[in-house]
Amino acid sequence: MNLRDKYIMEKFNIDENVLNYCNKVEEEIKDKFEKIDQITEYNQLKVLAAMQKNRLSDTHFASTTGYGYNDLGRDTLEQVYADVFNTEDALVRPQIISGTHALTVALAGNLRPGDEILSPVGVPYDTLQGVIGIREEKGSLKEYGISYRQVDLLPDGSFDFEGIKNALNDKTKLVTIQRSKGYEYRESFSVEKIGTLIKFIKDLRPDVICMVDNCYGEFVDYKEPSDVGADLIVGSLIKNPGGGLAPIGGYIAGKKEYVENAAVRLTSPGLGKEVGATLGVIPSFFQGLFNAPQVVGGSVKGAVFLSKLFEGLGFGVLPTPDEKRADIVQCVQMGSAENVIAFCCGIQKGAPVDSFVAPEPWDMPGYDCPVIMAAGAFVQGSSIELSADAPIKPPYNVFFQGGLSWHHAKIGIMIGLQTMVDRKLIKL
Ligand SMILES: *Cc1c(COP(=O)(O)O)cnc(C)c1O
What we know:
The protein is about 40% helix and about 15% strand.
């Protein structure tokens, strides 16, 4: 037995059956890893080229305070993001406190009373429902006279083009497309599919703003939604593009006019992008972006590994190991609350931070059942770091994502599986 395997068994209490099964699965997905590596390399070069083009220099790593006028680092970072995502402009700020906030700013900045939002891909992410006013919340867009319309996916998961055509009307100002599945048991949309949907909408209504919630999708594929016609893409820096190093932040990239509309909402009318001190975080934004393709590649490998591992044990998995990836999220239908809890406890045990605590389901605000969340992250709530969440209700889906490296994702998953074996929930 090699030193690595011996260490895994001794230090992390992995038994021989689990070790052998995991090693066998790892061997079987080698060819998929090669394809992932090619995407990683492409995206690494894309980020490198953007930094070189913008003559990134250590003068850009200086910190600003107060109003933050003439923050060269911030302005250069935004130009680098715009180049990476092939957009006219970008807003990348520590004052954007999360993905939900970035989406809120993009929506509120670009919509006016009387306008309508259309989601052609079914119900949006839980927190967005409160922002739009699908779920009553104080301060929702609905309170400002902005209406919402939704077209569900067809039973086979495809776009309802006829329904979308009928839903577009004189009030429709913005179409929101969520790339990742979120907590829904549906496919995450490939960039190619998103391109098809945007083209369909633009052919009918070229004036409508097409916005993509790009959370969990960045650097998973060669292209981004902004390469295939999206007017705005929006995401969180404590997910993919922060590369695990950004301690906070969000981005909005796209057409200059729409980014500007978001900027005057984030700061103030008349101020826009010109203000916003960066308080020393800019180096971590640059370095995180530089690392992001590598980190995302490791996360995708972990997702494929988990998918293959549990498919082989007879569990329902989405996506399957052979499907093309559109985001870093892997869903496994665990079938029972005990399985979910055991797996999540294992993921927690494998974390670098808080490995000694056990996660428990709790009644989180905004959910209709208890939710369990396993995460031991350097940045609180960061889900580009190894994490697993699950609403405790049938069919007991676990949503797994992240891992700052493939090797960490692998050991986390192994401990998750071992915990299920130890609790006699599955037999290998
Ligand atoms: C995470 C996520 C969000 C919200 O991001 P937060 O940073 O948690 O507010 C929105 N949409 C999708 C698809 C996400 O995965």
